[in-house]
Amino acid sequence: MEAEISGYPPKNVYCRTYMQNQLSFVVKLLIMSAFLSALIKYAGPLWPIPATDTNALILVLSPSIIMAIALLWRFQTQKQN
To answer: 42 and 76 share a domain?
Structure first.
């Protein structure tokens, strides 16, 4: 009985499931990216944000700063465990 269990799940089933998960992730990412792009293009000009250098820097650097904070926070929590 253990010989049957050790070969489970078959490698091709795992590979197919893994590829389906990857494909669904890429499709979701593409849809969210298209939505965000349309939001920026059509709703962005409606916001009363002045076009200054400071605002441009904030918009460009904020995703990187947010990601750095999230990764540092994750690193600290894993380090404590």
So the answer is: no
